[in-house]
């Protein structure tokens, strides 16, 4: 029996079994989302075709995941997605599908040993805590598995899916190069869309959103905060800051001139978009990421250069009035105002949360919110106070124990990545790749400390996925060095031929 099943799996690659499991999960997800049975039947052929295509073109499925992750909120804001399907479902289904394919392929290409690292153990600990939260009944509402699962998969489980997918599919130097270029291309599209919003105006659906939901946060003192392809300007600004840090580092550490110029252009363009977002936290994210690279570089020359440039930037914003005529620069400069009204409101809200959370060490419960906490419940106030921060949101829903667990796991993941960059890698350019992802991770974490953007699209996949890549870099360093030497030799040969041609034209 075992032999026949193994033979079947080897010959048919487990398609039928995986199809059954994933289709069952799809039905559960659709039912949980309130999707009609008729719609599920209509969608079934497309699900089958999508699974077949993923098996046939596996890396293409990964790139589709990245593209959907980056643009799902953009298309959602433009009202181009079908109603009734949670936007997170697209990502989650593709991630599970890719993991299933990798499990089936494990006999031919065993890569799961690459996942056994500190980041995996930290994520398992965090997911374990969030799983225990299903028993949390602080608000005396009973155990609600559906609400718990909808919150836990966004707060924890998606991070584990992302880690596994990136650890298994970003497996060669060539794919890493492709990933950087694809990420840059989507980032530049966001910059273009920011320019389009500024110069050509908003689309009708964007205008409606800006005049209603986003009016109080995106039209501030006569300044329009541009949100580009993101769900809001805070998300866009923090993402831009973290992405810019990464591309600056990639640019100054690569040996390939074409990449250096392209990544530098991308980084400066992203910074322009960051200022257009009017997100003041982004300034801190940018500088924090740069400071992390100063440490990881282990270079006095780089440290001095970067600190001088960072000092000039801070001095420009904090102690001068240069560029004060530009509305976006004025808003960014207000980040250094200690008496800022919005910062004071956050401080007041957090003081109120601290008062109530003392009686809820496990939080009010993952998935619990103002929609299901009665008005006469003692923790109703906690469910209605705007968290304004991903860390505060976790603090409220998972409690002081939960936020402590989250911080410890994030520090463990970060510490492991820093160790890889500083002590396990020898190639300077590969250290630059690792440092870029690690610095960007710190930048987005700081953004999550100040705004509720850490688990928003597209941040979780990009930055947790990027940190996952750092852990697999030692496995591919030998191949990286060989490919880099070949590419550098080709570059030198092109320059030599170009120089000879130039000399010949002068004769």
Question: Total number of helical segments?
Answer: 20
Question: How many β-strands, per DSSP?
Answer: 2
Low-confidence stretches: 1-10
Distance between the termini: 80 Å
Note the main sheet: 2 strands, antiparallel
Structural class: mainly alpha
- Record the strand order, biggest sheet: 1-2
Strand content: under 5%
Shape: globular
Give the proportion of residues in helices.
Answer: over 70%
**Overall residue-averaged pLDDT value:** 82
Radius of gyration: 24 Å
* Secondary-structure element order, N to C: HHHHHHHHHHEEHHHHHHHHHH
Structural features, described:
The structure is a single chain. With 507 residues, the protein is mainly alpha-helical. Helices cover 75% and strands 1% of the residues. It is built from 20 helices and 2 strands. It has a two-stranded antiparallel sheet. Strand 1 and strand 2 form a beta hairpin. The longest helix is centred in the C-terminal third of the chain and has 48 residues, at 459-506. The chain starts with a helix and ends with a helix. 39% of the residues are buried.
